[in-house]
């Protein structure tokens, strides 16, 4: 993020400087010449090119920032939807948990009732077992009661008494038999009850575990979804700030470019006024020769054949179809280049496209302001502000800048606009 802030500060400084330059242009400078303005134009053109590159770079950054913001916003939509779905599943899970816990309560109630029944059955079994054990002991100790009653009958006991005792003995036997049967049944039922209770206990344990797992899992999912939403929201906020800063940097760069565009137009206007003034003076003194030239036409600036004419063509390096703003002369690197006419060296500088370049101002020729430029030089033989004469060696053929081989790219500027050099040679 700090990159965008640092990046944004640069155009603001450049903009303030360009505004200051424009303010200076608004003040007339009567001693200003075409050469002065040409030098300013060269600087402004360089600044304008840099500003355009800054705009292009800022546009790419703004586009990338917008793309990132859009992606993060889409992710945020997905995170919100995921959280919403997770919370919905949590509600379902909570409802299921309530159902499971209700069943669990019912199962626990059954388990409690079963445990009570089991305790009662175990107590009943203990009682029955004690009674059977007591009966068995009595039988062993006292013998068979029926045999004793029969013995008493032989000894002269009343038959009615014998009959009563035998009936009582039969009743007791039947009761004991019934108690024994109840005891056996109690044992069977107790085992069944115990098995059912064990199953019920297992069921309750499973239901508890399932309920706990369900709630824990959904709580974890909810926590993850909430964390994801916070993380993506922070990413969106960060990318939103980056987008705003990138847009601000782009706006600043465009403002700088616009300022340099205005500055360039202002310089063109001032240059045109000077050219118009020169032409007006030339019209008033038609017989007076120009101060810095020796003729009305240009001489060939170098020996060599013409390899590319002025006009529309496909650029050999860039591949785009555009105007070729001069005439190319094929010549070996190091071949001397001559001034096409007398004049003053306005500029001697390097340009990324034209390479090493010389611009010569020839004043008014053929009723127009005339200048020549010599491009792609390997080296210079003159300095800025130097007066040169026709045929003087001003530099040497090269292949600097955007060039496919050794040659001279020769241009003629007529009233500041490029024109076909062959019309002047």
Description:
With 425 residues, the protein is an alpha+beta fold. It has two domains: 1-129 and 177-288, Orthogonal Bundle (Helix Hairpins), CATH 1.10.287; 306-423, Glucose Permease (Domain IIA), CATH 2.70.70.10. 63% of the residues lie in helices and 16% in strands. The chain has helices spanning 2-25, 34-142, 145-154, 159-284; strands at residues 306-308, 311-314, 321-324, 327-330, 336-338, 343-351, 355-365, 368-377, 379-380, 387-388, 393-396, 407-414, 417-419. Strands 1, 4, 6, 7, 8, 10, 12 and 13 form an eight-stranded antiparallel sheet that branches. It has a three-stranded antiparallel sheet with strand order 5-11-9, with no helix packed on it. A two-stranded antiparallel ribbon has the order 2-3.
Structural class of the secondary structure composition?
alpha+beta
Percent range for β-strand residues:
15-25%
Count of discrete domains: 2
Q: Care to count the β-strands? A: 13
Determine the N-to-C terminus distance: 58 Å
The CATH top-level class label of the largest domain: Mainly Alpha
Task: Name the descriptors.
Helix Hairpins; 4 helices; 3-stranded antiparallel β-sheet; alpha+beta; 13 strands; single chain; 425 residues; Glucose Permease (Domain IIA); 16% strand; 8-stranded antiparallel β-sheet
In short, what is this structure?
The chain has helices at 2-25, 34-142, 145-154, 159-284; strands spanning 306-308, 311-314, 321-324, 327-330, 336-338, 343-351, 355-365, 368-377, 379-380, 387-388, 393-396, 407-414, 417-419.
């Amino acid at each position: 993020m700090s990159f965008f802030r640092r990046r944004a500060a640069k155009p603001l400084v450049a903009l303030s400087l360009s505004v200051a330059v424009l303010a200076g242009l608004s003040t007339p400078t009567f001693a200003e010449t075409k050469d002065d303005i040409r030098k300013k134009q060269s600087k402004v053109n360089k600044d304008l090119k840099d500003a355009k590159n800054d705009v292009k770079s800022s546009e790419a950054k703004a586009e990338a920032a917008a793309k990132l913001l859009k992606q993060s916003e889409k992710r945020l939509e997905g995170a919100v939807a995921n959280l919403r779905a997770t919370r919905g599943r949590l509600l379902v899970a909570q409802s299921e948990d309530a159902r499971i816990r209700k069943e669990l309560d019912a199962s626990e109630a059954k388990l409690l009732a079963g445990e009570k029944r089991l305790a009662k059955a175990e107590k009943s079994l203990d009682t029955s077992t004690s009674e059977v054990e007591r009966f068995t002991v009595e039988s062993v100790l006292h013998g068979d009661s029926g045999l004793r009653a029969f013995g008493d009958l032989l000894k002269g006991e009343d038959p009615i008494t014998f009959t009563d005792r035998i009936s009582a003995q039969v009743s007791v036997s039947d009761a004991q038999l019934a108690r024994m049967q109840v005891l056996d049944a109690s044992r069977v039922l107790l085992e069944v009850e115990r098995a059912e209770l064990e199953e019920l206990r297992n069921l309750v344990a499973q239901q508890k575990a399932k309920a706990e797992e369900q709630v824990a899992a959904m709580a974890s999912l909810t926590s993850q979804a909430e964390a994801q939403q916070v993380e993506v929201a922070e990413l969106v906020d960060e990318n939103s700030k980056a987008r705003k800063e990138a847009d601000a940097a782009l706006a600043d760069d465009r403002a700088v470019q616009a300022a340099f565009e205005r500055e360039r137009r202002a310089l063109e206007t001032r240059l045109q006024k000077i050219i118009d003034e020169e032409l007006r003076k030339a019209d008033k003194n038609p017989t007076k020769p120009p101060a810095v030239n020796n003729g009305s036409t240009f001489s060939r600036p170098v020996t060599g054949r013409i390899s590319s004419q002025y006009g529309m063509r496909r650029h050999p390096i860039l591949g785009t179809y555009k105007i070729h703003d001069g005439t190319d002369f094929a010549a070996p690197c190091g071949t001397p280049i001559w001034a096409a006419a007398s004049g003053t060296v306005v500029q001697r500088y390097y340009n990324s496209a034209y390479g090493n370049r010389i611009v010569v101002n020839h004043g008014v020729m053929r009723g127009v302001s005339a200048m020549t430029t010599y491009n792609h030089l390997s080296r210079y033989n003159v300095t800025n502000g130097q007066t040169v004469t026709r045929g003087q060696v001003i530099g040497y053929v090269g292949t600097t800048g955007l060039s496919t081989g050794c040659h001279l790219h020769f241009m003629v500027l007529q009233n500041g606009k490029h024109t076909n050099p062959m019309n002047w040679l």
